């Protein structure tokens, strides 16, 4: 007696009349994946890749305006920008503004994160402190700029409390430090929230084992807490370096790069080349140089993320 085994017909066989090969199935799955990604890839291409290519092209042209140019000039624009004392003054201001801001973000963010993670603070005070500390992160750059311009005005609350009449944003000696302080105030909550999540992910057993071994609080901090937070700290610092070095709105809306050029950074320097002097070729060149600097940091960030994974 012969035994017969029935098999459920394959859906793809019913549709095509023949089973698809493994390679064709893989191609179909890949096509579906790229189909879902296509809208995002098209937007990235149109809104990012095309403008970048256009700006790079403008940097090699003379008097480039809205796609028209009087001809190619090779590297003359790059030589002109790199020979400009204003570019290097803006680079120095950007370096100071970025390094001080990122360092302060890290220190304040870690300090407040450890405070909020401390068992010495009750649940209700911890919730109140979290709301207060994260408040600056909720404001846009425009709100922060207007708020601090009012506070730091000659007749503002800061001068009233200090009994002075200092021009915080108009003084050549104080303006750069003032906008750096404002940026620190606006940016530390990002570090605080991220590091607080990292602290809460550290197993208690590690600190308990260190305590049993005789480690005191500073030793536990340097040998347990910091090594556990190192991947998060490196990622945050690299991201913040990229974001802060390209800060524009806050500086433009508080000082406009002035007084004179004491708060001029690369973003405002490039903007003025384009829309104050109408030299779009040099502005494109400056933008390309900023892009190259940012790409160096981006490469380190990507390599760190790959090593972390």
TrEMBL record:
Keyword line: Cell membrane, Membrane, Transmembrane, Transmembrane helix, Transport
PROSITE patterns referenced in this protein's UniProt entry, alphabetically: ABC_TM1
Places the protein is found: Cell membrane
GO cellular component, one term: plasma membrane
Membrane-spanning ranges: 34-60, 95-116, 128-148, 168-191, 232-253, 280-302
GO terms of biological process kind: transmembrane transport
CDD domains on file: TM_PBP2
Family from the record: Belongs to the binding-protein-dependent transport system permease family.
UniProt-recorded name of the protein: Sugar ABC transporter permease
Species the sequence originates in: Microbacterium barkeri
């Amino acid at each position: 007696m012969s035994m017969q085994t029935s098999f459920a017909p394959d859906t793809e066989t019913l549709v095509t009349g023949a089973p698809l090969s493994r390679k064709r199935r893989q191609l179909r799955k890949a096509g579906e994946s790229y189909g879902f990604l296509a809208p995002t890839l098209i937007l990235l291409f149109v809104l990012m890749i095309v403008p970048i290519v256009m700006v790079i092209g403008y940097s090699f042209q003379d008097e480039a305006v809205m796609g028209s140019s009087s001809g190619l000039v090779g590297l003359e624009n790059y030589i002109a920008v790199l020979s400009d004392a204003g570019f290097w003054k803006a680079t120095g201001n950007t370096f100071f503004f970025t390094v001080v801001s990122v360092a302060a973000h890290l220190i304040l963010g870690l300090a407040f994160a450890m405070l909020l993670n401390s068992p010495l603070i009750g649940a209700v005070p911890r919730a109140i402190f979290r709301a207060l500390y994260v408040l600056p992160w909720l404001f846009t750059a425009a709100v922060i700029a207007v708020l601090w311009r009012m506070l730091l005005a000659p007749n503002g609350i800061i001068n009233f409390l200090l009994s002075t009449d200092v021009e915080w944003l108009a003084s050549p000696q104080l303006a750069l430090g003032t906008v750096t302080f404002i940026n620190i105030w606006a940016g530390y909550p990002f570090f605080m929230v991220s590091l607080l999540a990292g602290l809460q992910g550290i197993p208690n057993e590690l600190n308990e084992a260190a305590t049993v071994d005789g480690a005191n609080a500073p030793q536990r901090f340097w040998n347990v807490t910091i090594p556990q937070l190192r991947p998060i700290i490196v990622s945050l610092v690299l991201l913040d370096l990229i974001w802060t070095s390209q800060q524009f709105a806050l500086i433009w809306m508080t000082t406009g790069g002035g007084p004179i050029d004491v708060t001029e950074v690369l973003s405002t320097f490039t903007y003025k080349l384009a829309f104050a002097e109408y030299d779009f070729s040099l502005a494109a060149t400056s933008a390309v140089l900023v892009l190259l600097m940012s790409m160096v940091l981006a490469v380190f960030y990507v390599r760190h993320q790959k090593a972390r994974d």
